[in-house]
Design brief:
Elements: E1 8-13, E2 20-25, E3 30-40, E4 44-49, E5 59-68, E6 71-79, H1 88-106, H2 112-126, H3 130-136
Antiparallel strand pairs: 1-2, 2-3, 3-4, 4-5, 5-6
Amino acid sequence: YSIGGSRVARVVFEPRPGGRIFEEHKDGTRMRWGEVIAVEPPRRVVFTFHPSRAESDAQQIEITFSPDGNHTRLDLVSTGWEKMGDEAQRTRGGYQLGWGLVLDRFAGRFSPALLFFGAMSAGITLIGQRGKFVRTSVGKMED
């Protein structure tokens, strides 16, 4: 779940207001994903999110954590879709599925969709389209 696929060395989340969220590729290229707005451990985190898209189209993501018996409940709310105009509905559907897959993975749950999207990502890299996607992404960081 990245811009660079197998090129990614790490994902950085600077846990402070104004902190950057980006992926760093093995060659040092950095691709901006968003910016941290609020961090209130252990209750919530809020950030903008716009990987490979213009910052002006960013969604705001708020994740809250609350006790749920012996477990922790995580609620994720994504707002700001209206900024994307006609692309919002299609993009939102993809992110809704993507966030579910990512959260399932963190929770240790298996999903056939997770396997499918992993294979699809590998296929994009295999046919040589990942480099084109990275080159045309608007999220490349200069610093």
